[in-house]
Amino acid sequence: MDDVRPGVVVPARGLRLADALVHREAVEENAADFGVAYAEDGQGLDVCLAELDDTFLAVLDEPPPPRVVRRVALAWADALQNRYNEHGCEDPMTGLNSIHHLQSQVAALYHAAGDGWLADTDIARTYALVVVEMSGTRDDVDPGFGALEGALRRASAAELIRQRMPTCDQVAELSPRRLVALARRTDGLDRSLADAVRMMSQRLQLSPSGGTCRGWTEALPMSPQSARHLLDELAR
User: Fold this and answer.
1) How many Å apart are CA 50 and CA 38, to the nearest integer?
2) Measuring CA to CA, how many Å separate 68 from each of 34, 49, 209, 232?
3) Residue boundaries of the structural domains of the chain
4) Average pLDDT of 196-201?
5) What's the CATH code, domain 99-234?
6) I need a surface site. Which of 6, 106, 193, 200 has the fewest CB within 10 A?
C-alpha cells in the first residue's frame, strides 16, 4: 500500500479496508467487514469509528463519507446482535443462559458506560451480580434421575430469581449448583434476594435430595477484565 500517507498509522483491523481504498475496489464491502471485525473483538462503536477515521486519513487524507460511516455502523450493530444471540442460547430444559451470555451481557454494560450511553456510568455502584448457590443432589440415586432433579432445581431457582427480582430477567448457569444474574442495584435488592433464597430452601427441603440454598451479591469491579475474571472465579 504505497499510497498510505507518511506519519499516519493504519490500524491493524483497517489493513484490508486501506488496501481497498488504495485500489478503489469493493470499498463498502470491506467497510462492512471492518465494522464486523470490531464487534466480534468486543470493541465499542466509538473505537470502531475513530479507527475508521484513522484509516481514511492515512490513505486518502480525508474523513470517510457518510455512506461508509453508516455501512460500518450498521455492520457493527448487526454483528454485535448476532454475537449476543449466539451467546444467549438457553438450555431448553431449564431456560438458563450460559456463562458466555452473561459475560457478553456484562461486557456490553461496560462498553455502554465507556461510550457514555448510561445516565450513571458508575456501574460498580449501580449494578451487581446476584449469586444463588444450592446444595447438590444425592450421590446414591440413578445418574439419569439425579441429572433430571438437578435441572429441575436450577429451573425452579431461576424462576424465583426472576419473580422476586424483575431486573434479573437473564439468569445464567455457572455450575450445576450456582446461578448468577446481572441486576440493577435497588433499595430492595437484598431483601428480594433473601426472599428468593428462603423460598428456594423451602422447595429444596421438599425435593428427593433435600438441601439448602444461599445467596449473595458481588460488586462489579472497575474494569471489564476484572469482571470477566470474577465470573470465571464464580464458575469454578
Assistant:
1) 11
2) 11, 10, 60, 38
3) 12-86, 99-234
4) 95
5) 3.30.70.270
6) 6
